[in-house]
């Protein structure tokens, strides 16, 4: 069962499963998501090596994080191998950042600003993801990719096409991180139901943008009016806008996204370490619907996604949203595939 609850961190008594060697690379580690995400990964007993990569600032970020007293080693790289790295004198560049990585988390790209949709970010972030995934194909083709860079509905298909062109695509290892949608659903439903959000596990399916996000609130057993159901559904779908507007041009949902990315990453590592029943949502290649990629609960194992799970029955209300979502999701997937083909 997936839980958005923060796992115990910085434990002084490491479990045997947590003692497995695991390298996590964060690409975009100096950004608004990347810095707190890297810090949280440094606190995880499942991470033995943390590799921070970005176009600027990563030696400093890595040096700062390296002072946090946990057992994992920290390394910071810039694109130019000769431009400096952390530790001082170590090898830099994308190759050094990625070689030996078990999980690569990609939050790199430009953030949303007021009035922007995730789709507005496409041209810039699509190129960034394409370049970084080409590096993954060359230097860590067996790593699980956890893609945060928006628009996820399009950047995940771009990653898949890049890996296919390189002959190293494995659908079990290419994931869009939709964990934040579940975190928001649990939080907002917890408020509505008067419950602790950590005791909830709302299933959220579809994609990771606007109406492609479909929370299955009927499966929570909560009592609500039609108006409350509509308000909660829309708030979950457009929770990112709520943060963008509140930050008034100063950024997007960076801290909550970093938390969600960390929860996803640590659960992937737990599954790799042999822990059982690791089920959480992910946007992956799927045959559950007409959309080639779809977010639903997935069971994770040592090699990534072990099984794409179904999502149960939809109410008439949810089916209405589902029918609106699929054409939009398919168009965003195709946009990513078309970009990769050019």
UniProtKB/TrEMBL annotation:
<feature type="binding site">
    <location>
        <position position="184"/>
    </location>
    <ligand>
        <name>substrate</name>
    </ligand>
</feature>
<dbReference type="InterPro" id="IPR015955">
    <property type="entry name" value="Lactate_DH/Glyco_Ohase_4_C"/>
</dbReference>
<dbReference type="InterPro" id="IPR022383">
    <property type="entry name" value="Lactate/malate_DH_C"/>
</dbReference>
<feature type="binding site">
    <location>
        <begin position="148"/>
        <end position="150"/>
    </location>
    <ligand>
        <name>NAD(+)</name>
    </ligand>
</feature>
<keyword id="KW-0520">NAD</keyword>
<feature type="domain" description="Lactate/malate dehydrogenase C-terminal">
    <location>
        <begin position="178"/>
        <end position="339"/>
    </location>
</feature>
<feature type="domain" description="Lactate/malate dehydrogenase N-terminal">
    <location>
        <begin position="23"/>
        <end position="176"/>
    </location>
</feature>
<protein>
    <recommendedName>
        <fullName>Malate dehydrogenase</fullName>
        <ecNumber>1.1.1.37</ecNumber>
    </recommendedName>
</protein>
<dbReference type="InterPro" id="IPR001252">
    <property type="entry name" value="Malate_DH_AS"/>
</dbReference>
<dbReference type="GO" id="GO:0006108">
    <property type="term" value="P:malate metabolic process"/>
</dbReference>
<dbReference type="InterPro" id="IPR036291">
    <property type="entry name" value="NAD(P)-bd_dom_sf"/>
</dbReference>
<dbReference type="InterPro" id="IPR001557">
    <property type="entry name" value="L-lactate/malate_DH"/>
</dbReference>
<comment type="subunit">
    <text>Homodimer.</text>
</comment>
<dbReference type="InterPro" id="IPR010097">
    <property type="entry name" value="Malate_DH_type1"/>
</dbReference>
<feature type="active site" description="Proton acceptor">
    <location>
        <position position="208"/>
    </location>
</feature>
<dbReference type="GO" id="GO:0005737">
    <property type="term" value="C:cytoplasm"/>
</dbReference>
<feature type="binding site">
    <location>
        <begin position="28"/>
        <end position="34"/>
    </location>
    <ligand>
        <name>NAD(+)</name>
    </ligand>
</feature>
<feature type="binding site">
    <location>
        <position position="112"/>
    </location>
    <ligand>
        <name>substrate</name>
    </ligand>
</feature>
<dbReference type="Pfam" id="PF00056">
    <property type="entry name" value="Ldh_1_N"/>
</dbReference>
<dbReference type="GO" id="GO:0030060">
    <property type="term" value="F:L-malate dehydrogenase (NAD+) activity"/>
</dbReference>
<feature type="binding site">
    <location>
        <position position="118"/>
    </location>
    <ligand>
        <name>substrate</name>
    </ligand>
</feature>
<dbReference type="GO" id="GO:0006099">
    <property type="term" value="P:tricarboxylic acid cycle"/>
</dbReference>
<keyword id="KW-0816">Tricarboxylic acid cycle</keyword>
<dbReference type="InterPro" id="IPR001236">
    <property type="entry name" value="Lactate/malate_DH_N"/>
</dbReference>
<feature type="binding site">
    <location>
        <position position="257"/>
    </location>
    <ligand>
        <name>NAD(+)</name>
    </ligand>
</feature>
<dbReference type="Pfam" id="PF02866">
    <property type="entry name" value="Ldh_1_C"/>
</dbReference>
<keyword id="KW-0560">Oxidoreductase</keyword>
<feature type="binding site">
    <location>
        <position position="150"/>
    </location>
    <ligand>
        <name>substrate</name>
    </ligand>
</feature>
<feature type="binding site">
    <location>
        <position position="54"/>
    </location>
    <ligand>
        <name>NAD(+)</name>
    </ligand>
</feature>
<comment type="similarity">
    <text>Belongs to the LDH/MDH superfamily. MDH type 1 family.</text>
</comment>
<feature type="binding site">
    <location>
        <position position="125"/>
    </location>
    <ligand>
        <name>NAD(+)</name>
    </ligand>
</feature>
């Amino acid at each position: 069962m997936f839980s958005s609850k923060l796992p115990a961190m910085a434990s002084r008594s490491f479990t045997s499963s947590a003692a497995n060697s695991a390298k996590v690379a964060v690409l975009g580690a100096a950004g608004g998501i990347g810095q707190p995400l890297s810090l949280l990964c440094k606190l995880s007993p499942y991470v033995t090596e943390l590799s921070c990569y970005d176009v600027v600032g990563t030696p400093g970020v890595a040096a700062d994080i390296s002072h946090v007293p946990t057992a994992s080693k920290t390394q910071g790289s810039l694109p130019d191998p000769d431009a400096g790295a952390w530790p001082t004198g170590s090898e830099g560049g994308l190759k050094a950042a990625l070689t030996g990585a078990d999980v690569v988390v990609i939050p790199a790209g430009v953030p949303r600003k007021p009035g922007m949709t995730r789709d507005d970010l496409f041209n810039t972030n699509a190129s960034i993801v394409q370049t970084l995934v080409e590096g993954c194909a060359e230097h860590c083709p067996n790593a699980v990719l956890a893609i945060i860079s928006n628009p996820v509905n399009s950047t995940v298909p771009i990653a898949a096409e890049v890996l296919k062109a390189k002959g190293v695509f494995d659908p079990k290892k290419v994931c869009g991180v939709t964990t934040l949608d579940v975190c928001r659903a649990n939080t907002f439903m917890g408020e509505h139901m008067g419950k602790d959000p950590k005791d909830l596990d709302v299933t959220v399916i579809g994609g990771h943008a606007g109406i492609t996000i479909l929370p299955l609130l009927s499966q929570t057993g909560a009592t609500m009016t039609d108006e409350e159901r509509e308000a909660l559904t829309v708030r979950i779908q457009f929770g990112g806008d709520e943060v963008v507007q509140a930050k008034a041009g100063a950024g997007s949902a960076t801290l909550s996204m970093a938390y969600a990315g960390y929860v996803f990453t640590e659960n992937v590592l737990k599954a790799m370490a042999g822990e059982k029943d690791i089920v959480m949502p992910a946007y992956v290649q799927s045959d559950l619907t007409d959309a080639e990629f779809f977010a639903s609960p997935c069971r994770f194992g040592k090699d990534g996604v072990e099984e794409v799970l179904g999502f149960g029955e939809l109410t008439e209300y949810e089916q209405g949203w589902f029918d609106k979502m699929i054409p939009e999701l398919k168009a965003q997937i195709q946009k990513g595939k078309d970009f990769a083909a050019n």
